[in-house]
Write a structure and sequence with these properties.
Layout: E1 5-11, H1 14-28, E2 34-40, H2 46-54, E3 61-62, H3 72-90, E4 94-98, H4 102-113, E5 118-121, H5 136-146, E6 149-152, H6 155-163, E7 171-173, H7 177-183, H8 195-198, E8 206-211, H9 220-235, E9 239-244, H10 249-259, E10 265-268, H11 273-282, E11 285-288, H12 293-299, E12 304-306, H13 314-319, E13 322-324, H14 329-341, H15 343-350, H16 361-372
Parallel strand pairs: 1-2, 1-4, 2-3, 4-5, 5-6, 6-7, 8-9, 8-11, 9-10, 11-12, 12-13
Helix pairs in contact: 1-2, 1-7, 1-16, 3-4, 4-5, 9-10, 9-14, 14-15
Length: 384
Protein backbone atom coordinates (compact mmCIF):
# COMPACT_ATOMS: atom_id res chain seq x y z
CA UNK A 1 0.00 0.00 0.00
CA UNK A 2 1.47 3.40 -0.99
CA UNK A 3 2.38 5.79 1.82
CA UNK A 4 0.90 8.56 -0.30
CA UNK A 5 -1.57 7.97 -3.11
CA UNK A 6 -0.32 9.38 -6.40
CA UNK A 7 -3.32 10.55 -8.41
CA UNK A 8 -2.90 11.59 -12.02
CA UNK A 9 -5.90 13.64 -13.15
CA UNK A 10 -6.27 13.77 -16.94
CA UNK A 11 -8.58 16.03 -18.94
CA UNK A 12 -8.62 17.87 -22.24
CA UNK A 13 -11.65 20.11 -22.67
CA UNK A 14 -13.15 23.08 -20.89
CA UNK A 15 -16.13 21.15 -19.43
CA UNK A 16 -13.80 18.51 -18.01
CA UNK A 17 -11.49 21.16 -16.56
CA UNK A 18 -14.39 22.96 -14.87
CA UNK A 19 -15.58 19.75 -13.24
CA UNK A 20 -12.16 18.37 -12.38
CA UNK A 21 -10.69 21.61 -11.02
CA UNK A 22 -12.50 21.30 -7.66
CA UNK A 23 -11.24 17.71 -7.32
CA UNK A 24 -7.64 18.72 -8.09
CA UNK A 25 -7.85 21.57 -5.57
CA UNK A 26 -9.35 19.24 -2.95
CA UNK A 27 -6.52 16.70 -3.37
CA UNK A 28 -3.99 19.53 -3.01
CA UNK A 29 -5.37 20.28 0.46
CA UNK A 30 -4.02 16.96 1.78
CA UNK A 31 -0.33 16.62 0.81
CA UNK A 32 0.10 14.13 3.65
CA UNK A 33 -2.25 11.74 1.79
CA UNK A 34 -2.00 12.58 -1.90
CA UNK A 35 0.57 13.35 -4.57
CA UNK A 36 -1.59 15.17 -7.09
CA UNK A 37 -0.44 15.37 -10.71
CA UNK A 38 -2.29 16.82 -13.70
CA UNK A 39 -1.97 15.98 -17.38
CA UNK A 40 -3.95 17.72 -20.11
CA UNK A 41 -4.32 16.65 -23.72
CA UNK A 42 -5.58 20.13 -24.68
CA UNK A 43 -8.18 18.58 -26.95
CA UNK A 44 -9.49 22.14 -26.54
CA UNK A 45 -6.77 24.76 -26.12
CA UNK A 46 -7.89 28.33 -25.44
CA UNK A 47 -11.05 27.33 -23.61
CA UNK A 48 -9.11 24.87 -21.46
CA UNK A 49 -6.44 27.44 -20.59
CA UNK A 50 -9.07 29.89 -19.37
CA UNK A 51 -10.27 27.41 -16.76
CA UNK A 52 -6.76 26.41 -15.70
CA UNK A 53 -5.96 30.07 -15.12
CA UNK A 54 -9.19 30.73 -13.22
CA UNK A 55 -8.61 27.83 -10.81
CA UNK A 56 -4.83 28.36 -10.70
CA UNK A 57 -3.91 24.89 -11.95
CA UNK A 58 -0.58 24.36 -13.72
CA UNK A 59 -0.47 21.00 -15.53
CA UNK A 60 2.53 18.77 -14.96
CA UNK A 61 2.13 17.45 -18.51
CA UNK A 62 0.57 19.14 -21.55
CA UNK A 63 0.19 17.23 -24.82
CA UNK A 64 -1.16 20.27 -26.69
CA UNK A 65 -2.80 18.08 -29.34
CA UNK A 66 -5.35 20.56 -30.65
CA UNK A 67 -5.12 21.20 -34.39
CA UNK A 68 -7.37 22.97 -36.92
CA UNK A 69 -10.28 20.80 -38.13
CA UNK A 70 -9.13 17.86 -36.04
CA UNK A 71 -11.21 14.70 -36.24
CA UNK A 72 -12.05 12.11 -33.62
CA UNK A 73 -9.40 9.90 -35.23
CA UNK A 74 -6.77 12.62 -34.75
CA UNK A 75 -7.67 13.19 -31.09
CA UNK A 76 -7.78 9.47 -30.35
CA UNK A 77 -4.44 8.62 -31.91
CA UNK A 78 -2.49 11.62 -30.60
CA UNK A 79 -3.86 11.32 -27.06
CA UNK A 80 -3.21 7.59 -26.78
CA UNK A 81 0.37 7.83 -28.01
CA UNK A 82 1.05 11.02 -26.06
CA UNK A 83 -0.14 9.62 -22.74
CA UNK A 84 1.98 6.46 -22.93
CA UNK A 85 5.29 8.03 -21.79
CA UNK A 86 3.45 10.04 -19.11
CA UNK A 87 2.04 6.86 -17.60
CA UNK A 88 5.48 5.25 -17.75
CA UNK A 89 7.12 8.25 -16.08
CA UNK A 90 4.56 8.90 -13.35
CA UNK A 91 3.36 5.36 -12.57
CA UNK A 92 0.37 6.74 -10.64
CA UNK A 93 -1.66 4.69 -8.18
CA UNK A 94 -4.83 6.05 -9.74
CA UNK A 95 -5.72 7.79 -12.99
CA UNK A 96 -8.68 10.11 -12.56
CA UNK A 97 -10.83 11.01 -15.58
CA UNK A 98 -14.09 12.83 -16.00
CA UNK A 99 -17.27 12.30 -17.91
CA UNK A 100 -17.49 11.48 -21.57
CA UNK A 101 -14.93 13.12 -23.86
CA UNK A 102 -12.56 11.34 -26.21
CA UNK A 103 -9.74 12.32 -23.84
CA UNK A 104 -11.63 10.55 -21.03
CA UNK A 105 -12.01 7.28 -22.90
CA UNK A 106 -8.48 7.29 -24.29
CA UNK A 107 -6.89 8.13 -20.93
CA UNK A 108 -8.81 5.21 -19.42
CA UNK A 109 -7.74 2.89 -22.21
CA UNK A 110 -4.11 3.96 -21.93
CA UNK A 111 -4.16 3.44 -18.15
CA UNK A 112 -5.71 0.01 -18.65
CA UNK A 113 -2.91 -0.94 -21.06
CA UNK A 114 -0.47 -0.07 -18.25
CA UNK A 115 -2.65 -1.86 -15.64
CA UNK A 116 -3.15 1.36 -13.70
CA UNK A 117 -6.46 1.68 -11.81
CA UNK A 118 -8.93 4.23 -13.16
CA UNK A 119 -11.36 6.43 -11.23
CA UNK A 120 -14.27 7.83 -13.25
CA UNK A 121 -15.78 11.12 -12.06
CA UNK A 122 -19.39 11.68 -13.24
CA UNK A 123 -19.85 7.98 -13.90
CA UNK A 124 -23.01 6.23 -14.98
CA UNK A 125 -24.81 8.81 -17.10
CA UNK A 126 -26.74 7.12 -19.92
CA UNK A 127 -29.21 7.85 -22.72
CA UNK A 128 -29.02 4.24 -23.97
CA UNK A 129 -28.66 5.58 -27.52
CA UNK A 130 -25.09 5.25 -28.72
CA UNK A 131 -25.48 8.05 -31.26
CA UNK A 132 -27.10 10.58 -28.93
CA UNK A 133 -25.08 12.33 -27.69
CA UNK A 134 -22.34 11.31 -30.12
CA UNK A 135 -19.62 10.27 -29.38
CA UNK A 136 -20.12 10.95 -25.67
CA UNK A 137 -22.52 8.11 -24.92
CA UNK A 138 -20.04 5.44 -26.01
CA UNK A 139 -17.09 7.28 -24.47
CA UNK A 140 -18.67 7.07 -21.03
CA UNK A 141 -19.90 3.50 -21.46
CA UNK A 142 -16.45 2.32 -22.52
CA UNK A 143 -14.81 4.28 -19.70
CA UNK A 144 -17.26 2.71 -17.28
CA UNK A 145 -16.23 -0.75 -18.42
CA UNK A 146 -12.58 0.04 -17.71
CA UNK A 147 -12.89 2.03 -14.48
CA UNK A 148 -12.15 0.54 -11.07
CA UNK A 149 -13.81 3.28 -8.99
CA UNK A 150 -16.99 5.01 -10.09
CA UNK A 151 -17.98 8.42 -8.71
CA UNK A 152 -21.64 8.73 -9.67
CA UNK A 153 -23.34 12.09 -9.27
CA UNK A 154 -26.76 10.62 -8.46
CA UNK A 155 -28.48 7.42 -7.38
CA UNK A 156 -29.88 7.07 -10.90
CA UNK A 157 -26.41 6.99 -12.43
CA UNK A 158 -25.38 4.40 -9.83
CA UNK A 159 -28.33 2.20 -10.84
CA UNK A 160 -27.29 2.48 -14.49
CA UNK A 161 -23.88 1.08 -13.58
CA UNK A 162 -25.32 -1.72 -11.46
CA UNK A 163 -27.60 -2.68 -14.37
CA UNK A 164 -24.44 -3.05 -16.49
CA UNK A 165 -22.86 -5.42 -14.00
CA UNK A 166 -20.58 -2.97 -12.14
CA UNK A 167 -19.77 -4.02 -8.56
CA UNK A 168 -21.94 -1.80 -6.29
CA UNK A 169 -19.10 -1.58 -3.76
CA UNK A 170 -16.96 0.24 -6.33
CA UNK A 171 -19.60 2.98 -6.79
CA UNK A 172 -19.80 6.13 -4.67
CA UNK A 173 -22.68 8.61 -5.03
CA UNK A 174 -21.01 12.00 -4.63
CA UNK A 175 -23.12 14.68 -6.30
CA UNK A 176 -21.68 16.52 -9.28
CA UNK A 177 -18.46 18.50 -9.00
CA UNK A 178 -19.83 21.11 -11.42
CA UNK A 179 -21.89 22.47 -8.52
CA UNK A 180 -18.69 22.75 -6.45
CA UNK A 181 -17.16 24.88 -9.21
CA UNK A 182 -20.29 26.93 -9.75
CA UNK A 183 -20.81 27.90 -6.13
CA UNK A 184 -17.29 29.28 -5.86
CA UNK A 185 -17.56 31.31 -9.08
CA UNK A 186 -20.95 33.06 -9.19
CA UNK A 187 -21.15 36.54 -7.63
CA UNK A 188 -24.27 38.67 -7.54
CA UNK A 189 -22.23 41.87 -7.96
CA UNK A 190 -20.34 40.53 -10.98
CA UNK A 191 -19.32 43.04 -13.67
CA UNK A 192 -18.60 41.88 -17.23
CA UNK A 193 -15.60 42.95 -19.30
CA UNK A 194 -18.01 43.16 -22.24
CA UNK A 195 -19.63 46.61 -21.95
CA UNK A 196 -22.62 45.56 -24.06
CA UNK A 197 -23.51 42.98 -21.40
CA UNK A 198 -23.15 45.51 -18.59
CA UNK A 199 -25.69 47.72 -20.39
CA UNK A 200 -28.36 44.99 -20.52
CA UNK A 201 -31.30 45.70 -18.23
CA UNK A 202 -31.54 42.20 -16.76
CA UNK A 203 -34.07 43.28 -14.14
CA UNK A 204 -36.73 44.47 -16.59
CA UNK A 205 -36.07 42.50 -19.76
CA UNK A 206 -36.89 38.90 -20.71
CA UNK A 207 -33.37 37.65 -21.39
CA UNK A 208 -32.93 34.32 -23.16
CA UNK A 209 -29.45 32.81 -23.00
CA UNK A 210 -28.85 30.43 -25.91
CA UNK A 211 -26.04 27.98 -26.72
CA UNK A 212 -25.87 25.32 -29.43
CA UNK A 213 -22.98 23.12 -30.50
CA UNK A 214 -23.92 19.41 -30.63
CA UNK A 215 -22.83 17.45 -33.69
CA UNK A 216 -26.21 15.75 -34.04
CA UNK A 217 -27.93 19.17 -34.25
CA UNK A 218 -25.78 20.62 -37.02
CA UNK A 219 -27.64 21.72 -40.15
CA UNK A 220 -31.43 21.76 -40.31
CA UNK A 221 -32.08 20.98 -36.62
CA UNK A 222 -30.14 24.10 -35.60
CA UNK A 223 -31.91 26.14 -38.27
CA UNK A 224 -35.23 25.10 -36.75
CA UNK A 225 -34.01 26.23 -33.31
CA UNK A 226 -33.11 29.67 -34.60
CA UNK A 227 -36.41 30.04 -36.48
CA UNK A 228 -38.21 29.28 -33.21
CA UNK A 229 -36.23 32.01 -31.48
CA UNK A 230 -37.28 34.50 -34.16
CA UNK A 231 -40.91 33.54 -33.57
CA UNK A 232 -40.51 34.21 -29.85
CA UNK A 233 -39.02 37.63 -30.51
CA UNK A 234 -41.85 38.48 -32.88
CA UNK A 235 -44.42 37.74 -30.19
CA UNK A 236 -42.56 39.24 -27.19
CA UNK A 237 -41.35 42.77 -27.82
CA UNK A 238 -39.59 42.92 -24.43
CA UNK A 239 -37.65 39.67 -25.04
CA UNK A 240 -34.05 39.63 -26.21
CA UNK A 241 -31.42 36.98 -26.79
CA UNK A 242 -27.79 36.75 -25.77
CA UNK A 243 -26.04 34.06 -27.78
CA UNK A 244 -22.35 33.13 -27.28
CA UNK A 245 -21.76 31.50 -30.66
CA UNK A 246 -19.64 28.35 -30.88
CA UNK A 247 -16.53 28.67 -33.04
CA UNK A 248 -17.57 25.80 -35.32
CA UNK A 249 -18.10 27.40 -38.77
CA UNK A 250 -21.08 25.11 -39.37
CA UNK A 251 -22.79 26.64 -36.34
CA UNK A 252 -21.79 30.23 -37.08
CA UNK A 253 -23.01 30.19 -40.67
CA UNK A 254 -26.57 29.19 -39.76
CA UNK A 255 -26.70 31.51 -36.74
CA UNK A 256 -25.71 34.48 -38.89
CA UNK A 257 -28.25 33.58 -41.58
CA UNK A 258 -31.16 33.22 -39.18
CA UNK A 259 -30.42 35.65 -36.34
CA UNK A 260 -27.52 37.85 -37.37
CA UNK A 261 -29.55 40.92 -38.37
CA UNK A 262 -32.11 40.92 -35.58
CA UNK A 263 -31.86 44.03 -33.37
CA UNK A 264 -32.70 42.13 -30.17
CA UNK A 265 -30.18 39.35 -30.69
CA UNK A 266 -26.71 39.89 -29.31
CA UNK A 267 -24.28 37.45 -30.91
CA UNK A 268 -21.04 37.33 -28.94
CA UNK A 269 -17.89 35.25 -28.88
CA UNK A 270 -17.69 32.15 -26.66
CA UNK A 271 -17.15 33.24 -23.08
CA UNK A 272 -14.74 32.23 -20.37
CA UNK A 273 -16.27 30.10 -17.65
CA UNK A 274 -16.44 32.80 -14.96
CA UNK A 275 -18.35 35.42 -16.98
CA UNK A 276 -20.52 32.76 -18.57
CA UNK A 277 -21.87 31.30 -15.33
CA UNK A 278 -22.45 34.81 -14.05
CA UNK A 279 -24.39 35.54 -17.24
CA UNK A 280 -26.46 32.41 -16.58
CA UNK A 281 -27.19 33.81 -13.15
CA UNK A 282 -28.58 37.03 -14.66
CA UNK A 283 -30.60 35.54 -17.56
CA UNK A 284 -34.24 34.48 -17.26
CA UNK A 285 -34.38 31.32 -19.36
CA UNK A 286 -31.66 29.02 -20.73
CA UNK A 287 -32.04 27.28 -24.10
CA UNK A 288 -29.19 24.88 -24.79
CA UNK A 289 -28.10 21.53 -26.20
CA UNK A 290 -25.29 21.40 -23.62
CA UNK A 291 -25.12 18.67 -21.01
CA UNK A 292 -23.38 20.56 -18.21
CA UNK A 293 -25.75 23.52 -18.29
CA UNK A 294 -28.59 21.15 -17.39
CA UNK A 295 -26.82 20.73 -14.06
CA UNK A 296 -25.58 24.28 -13.53
CA UNK A 297 -28.57 26.46 -14.38
CA UNK A 298 -31.02 24.81 -11.94
CA UNK A 299 -28.66 25.66 -9.07
CA UNK A 300 -29.18 29.28 -10.08
CA UNK A 301 -32.97 28.95 -10.27
CA UNK A 302 -33.07 29.17 -14.06
CA UNK A 303 -35.48 27.07 -16.17
CA UNK A 304 -33.67 25.12 -18.88
CA UNK A 305 -35.17 24.10 -22.23
CA UNK A 306 -32.97 21.36 -23.66
CA UNK A 307 -32.62 21.44 -27.44
CA UNK A 308 -32.21 17.67 -27.71
CA UNK A 309 -34.44 14.62 -28.01
CA UNK A 310 -32.55 12.67 -25.35
CA UNK A 311 -30.70 13.49 -22.16
CA UNK A 312 -28.26 11.53 -20.03
CA UNK A 313 -29.51 13.61 -17.09
CA UNK A 314 -33.06 12.35 -16.51
CA UNK A 315 -32.98 13.39 -12.85
CA UNK A 316 -33.37 17.02 -13.90
CA UNK A 317 -36.36 16.18 -16.09
CA UNK A 318 -38.02 14.30 -13.23
CA UNK A 319 -37.26 17.12 -10.81
CA UNK A 320 -38.81 19.63 -13.21
CA UNK A 321 -35.75 21.85 -13.49
CA UNK A 322 -35.29 21.11 -17.22
CA UNK A 323 -37.57 20.16 -20.08
CA UNK A 324 -36.65 18.32 -23.28
CA UNK A 325 -38.00 20.28 -26.24
CA UNK A 326 -36.03 18.76 -29.14
CA UNK A 327 -35.36 20.81 -32.27
CA UNK A 328 -38.88 21.37 -33.59
CA UNK A 329 -39.42 25.10 -34.16
CA UNK A 330 -43.06 24.83 -33.14
CA UNK A 331 -42.30 23.05 -29.85
CA UNK A 332 -39.41 25.34 -28.89
CA UNK A 333 -41.43 28.49 -29.55
CA UNK A 334 -44.46 27.16 -27.66
CA UNK A 335 -42.48 26.09 -24.58
CA UNK A 336 -40.44 29.30 -24.46
CA UNK A 337 -43.54 31.47 -24.74
CA UNK A 338 -45.22 29.44 -22.01
CA UNK A 339 -42.40 30.30 -19.61
CA UNK A 340 -42.48 33.96 -20.65
CA UNK A 341 -46.25 34.37 -20.30
CA UNK A 342 -47.18 31.97 -17.48
CA UNK A 343 -45.63 33.01 -14.13
CA UNK A 344 -46.77 29.78 -12.47
CA UNK A 345 -45.04 27.62 -15.09
CA UNK A 346 -41.87 29.67 -14.73
CA UNK A 347 -41.94 29.48 -10.93
CA UNK A 348 -42.47 25.71 -10.97
CA UNK A 349 -39.28 25.21 -12.99
CA UNK A 350 -37.22 27.93 -11.31
CA UNK A 351 -37.99 26.74 -7.79
CA UNK A 352 -37.56 23.01 -8.40
CA UNK A 353 -34.80 21.43 -6.33
CA UNK A 354 -31.59 20.76 -8.25
CA UNK A 355 -30.83 17.02 -7.93
CA UNK A 356 -27.16 17.31 -8.86
CA UNK A 357 -25.19 18.53 -5.91
CA UNK A 358 -24.59 20.50 -2.75
CA UNK A 359 -21.05 21.73 -3.36
CA UNK A 360 -19.35 18.87 -1.50
CA UNK A 361 -18.80 16.34 -4.29
CA UNK A 362 -15.03 16.86 -4.39
CA UNK A 363 -14.76 16.21 -0.66
CA UNK A 364 -16.65 12.94 -1.08
CA UNK A 365 -14.39 11.90 -3.96
CA UNK A 366 -11.23 12.51 -1.94
CA UNK A 367 -12.69 10.56 0.99
CA UNK A 368 -13.70 7.71 -1.32
CA UNK A 369 -10.18 7.45 -2.74
CA UNK A 370 -8.74 7.24 0.77
CA UNK A 371 -11.30 4.60 1.68
CA UNK A 372 -10.64 2.59 -1.50
CA UNK A 373 -6.89 2.54 -0.84
CA UNK A 374 -7.50 1.67 2.83
CA UNK A 375 -5.98 4.89 4.08
CA UNK A 376 -9.24 5.58 5.91
CA UNK A 377 -11.94 3.39 7.35
CA UNK A 378 -14.53 6.14 6.96
CA UNK A 379 -16.94 5.56 4.09
CA UNK A 380 -17.87 8.93 2.57
CA UNK A 381 -21.40 10.12 3.20
CA UNK A 382 -23.57 9.45 0.15
CA UNK A 383 -25.08 12.44 -1.63
CA UNK A 384 -28.87 12.30 -1.57
Amino acid sequence: MPQKIKVLSIFGTRPEAIKMAPVVKELEKYPENFISKVAVTAQHREMLDQVLQLFQITPDHDLNIMAPEQTLYDITAKALLGLKPIFEQERPDLVLVHGDTTTTFIASLGAYYQQIPVGHVEAGLRTHNKYSPYPEEMNRKLTGSIADIHFSPTATSRENLIDEGIDPESIYVTGNTVIDALLTTVRHDYSFHNDSLNKVNFAEKEILLVTTHRRENLGEPMRQVYKALRQVLEQRSQASIIFPVHKNPAVRRVVEEELGQHPRVQLIEPMDYEPFVNLMNKANIILTDSGGMQEEAPSLGKPVLVLRDTTERPEAVRAGTVKLVGTSAETIARETLELLTNPEAYKNMANAVNPYGDGKASQRIAQAILYHFRKSDQLPEEYA
